[in-house]
């Protein structure tokens, strides 16, 4: 690691605990010599150590949550490598909508998890169906359309996902009731699911796939606006349009990064065929 990198990264990180402990020791020494002696030192320092412990616990818990999410996403990416990186980008776009809607940090983070994990139920769909090269039978299509329910089953015991769980179950619902799995309409569809549906379709349109080139961001937004009201919540579409107008679209993981040099992209999966079918009636989602 370059010296400059070490100075900026590791050194401050390792110096901070030393500085905090040094200050605590100094405070202990000063209080110990005060008129109230050791009692004063304990009364001041004990709460300080407790708050430090709680803070450390919070960070450990957060790291465990991130690791759980990463493991699930990697499993989905291995299963359906064709759309690798899609989950992270849907999480990123969902977060942009959350910020635009003024959600607090905690809800925005849970919404990001919802975007990242929206297609986790693909783990329950046979790989041969996700990668099938050819028309789908009605039965195969029915099995693929079970993935929101599989996903919900997988994550419903994970408490920290909160509202993200219902977003995973309902991310293919449409405002006019023509979606699945329950055909919910309008406000019956959970808010997080309405956000993820927009983010999912936006990334599906702006990502390059082997069967078609990526659409420009402006064209994708135009398409989302055209389908707002029938398929998508106009509030969520408007929020994405405003956020992108201000910040632009700079995905952390692009589709191109997912295919190592010299490796041919896999054959178009079932999701592409569902997507093109959906385009006849509206905008198709990125996943199945
Ligand atoms: Fe999906």
TrEMBL record:
Leader peptide range in chain numbering: none
SMART domains in alphabetical order: HDc
Transmembrane segments: 12-32, 38-56
Domain HD-GYP residue range list: 61-256
Taxonomy, superkingdom: Bacteria
Record-linked Gene3D superfamilies: Hypothetical protein af1432
Keywords assigned by UniProt, alphabetized: Membrane, Transmembrane, Transmembrane helix
Region described as Disordered: 254-288
HD domain boundaries: 83-205
Cited InterPro entries: Cyclic_di-GMP/3'3'-cGAMP_PDE, HD/PDEase_dom, HD_domain, HD_GYP_dom, HDIG_dom
Pfam family, one: HD_5
Name of this chain's protein: Uncharacterized protein
Record organism: Streptomyces avermitilis
